[in-house]
Amino acid sequence: MNKIKLFRNAGILAFLVCAATLTGCNRQVNEYVQPPPPKVTTSKPVRSRITPFLEQTGRTEAAEEADVRARVRGFLQEVNFQPGEPVTQESILYKVEPDQYQAAFQSAEAAVEAAKADILVKEARLDTLEAEVTRADLELTRQKKLQASNASSQAQLQTAEAANAAAIANRNSGKADIAAAKANLNSAEAKRDQAQLDLDYTEINAPIDGSITKTYFKTGNLVENGDRLATVVNDKTIFANFSISDRDLLEFMKAKQLAQKENGVKPDPGGDAWRGKKVYLRRETDDGFPFEGELDYVDQAGIEADTGTLGLRASFNNQSRQLLPGLFVTVRIPAEESVESLLVPEMALTRNDQGSFVLTVGADNEVAQTKVTVGQTVSGWAIIQSGLKDDDQVIIDGLQRARPGLKVVPTSQQLTVDADALLRGRGQPDSTPADSDAVTQPAEEAVNEGTPVQDSETKPSPSAP
To answer: Taking CA atoms, which of 97, 273, 393, 452 is between 20 and 30 Å from 328?
Structure first.
């Protein structure tokens, strides 16, 4: 019985081993299938004439700003404006109580009239003194004639001479009194004019055209001579103050001279190389440089020794009042002449510690890493100084899926550059791939060791004209 059970178990075990062997023989073997080449978007570098520029930051200020100040002491009687409203020059903004100044003026006016009357009295007295001089002179002449004919005594002649001298002295005294009276009149008139001025100053006028701030004193407040009551700001023209380094200045002057030489223009030794030059401005939130103005002042003191910079100022028409005083702005100054340049989208650049690179696709659709020298970067474009040719196919989209030596499926796209828009901070490259699948294709996570990492923090760096 045990033998029969043993043989039965041995048969079952043999069956299981045979079944397992047959199952293993029929299993399919897994094989590695090469993924299809990734899709990328390429474009040839764009050749265009680009105008280099200087770019600096600065602050804005109103073209005109004047404080409204009290010129006399007193209590404010009226405030004749609303904060923020436009005012015109000489319009009456405040009134100070005029009573005491009116009384002072009337008193000064009366003093002037009194001085004039005193002069008339003294002039009439002088007429009398002149008559006395004439009479004394005639008497002296008569006594001299009588003395010559021994018809008069010596004493009578001496009396006549004394009377004549006294008359002349009185006349001179009368003239001096008139001169003193006229001086008194001049003093009285000066006091009257000052009193009139103080009375006029009780009406406080706008010093310039513009918009007025809120008042710092209210009706009934006591103001002192010189107190600032408000401020009038004329911001229809806005100035932007900024500075450039001495190196940029020298490079600009050199470029200016070269441009004049090429165009056959004789340099003006007395001219201002900066004044009237076109300038663009952008605020912190602006897209590009929407404001156009011109340079109107260069610091005549020259380069500041502490900072090595030259101060400049540009003016901008601000009739629309989109620019406010005190804004932090960026100013861009274009160069004299445009330069033939080769450009690629800035996002096509990759960087590592060895420099800047782009990925290009050859005729065999194989990716190659090409080292380039980058000059200026402008509004999403990179100006390539060396390393690329006009017919190179540069990968502008799909960099994360491409690496040197890898085969790819390129989709070519043609890019264009608007040089004028670029100068105004616009004209960014349109990198939308022609094949939408290139966008939806999942990116490979594996990256070859040593492949440069794309620098997304690249910013335009100012370059001298």
So the answer is: 273
